[in-house]
Design a protein that fits this description.
10 helices, 12 strands, alpha+beta
Length: 262
Amino acid sequence: MFTIKKYVVADSLEEAYKLNQSKKANILGGLLWMKMGHKTIQTGIDLSNLGLDKIEENDEYFEIGAMVRLRDLEVHEGLNKYFNNAIENCVKSIVGVQFRNCATIGGSIFSRFGFSDPLTCLLALDSYVKLYKGGVISMREFVNMPYDNDILEKVIIKKDNRKISYMSHRNISTDFPVLTCAVSKIGDKFAVAVGARPQKAVLVLDEENILSCDPTKDEIEKFADYVESKLEFGSNMRASKEFRSHLCKVLVRRCINEIGGM
């Protein structure tokens, strides 16, 4: 458990930002991972009054507020229709419905957890974060940025008509993933994001043009080998690095087949 000495419901992002500059302050989301530690928080900052709990859609993109719950993503008709249910698939195995009704997208993305299913999925899309001071930054850049005391306002996903497939492997349902994989395709260009290696997700592009627009079995096999060769895997209590390396190729093949391979 953790202890909060001072609890503040912020009236503005500016107030929240100023409070968060202290090393002993923390932004509060769903508090699900935080409660598993033993930490004393001098100032807990609640963003729930700032209107960041909405999913908005227009002709060009979806905007997802940082306080949107994972369950809201799971059941959002517009997101899942546009992205082939990949958004639902990337959150539906996270612990249970009660957990997903509390956990926020902001907490998962800003923390850049190695086991973050949503981060893997979003990395394969044309997605961005909007930071209060840092502005709009592509997810591909953000995932490798150092941690700081900025505040994540929202996640933006562009509508660019790409196809996407998301899959993960878990030893048992609702456990942390052994490996996560998302493959997207726009035109004849493929991108693969692999996470829970157990390190955070990494994006691999088909820079050698291995895959054609309608890839053959041999192309898919060659590309799966290529992706595996570009990544580093580690071992932990859930799986060995050798198993993750093998599993990576399996999930890449399955995702490509789902979005249009042979």
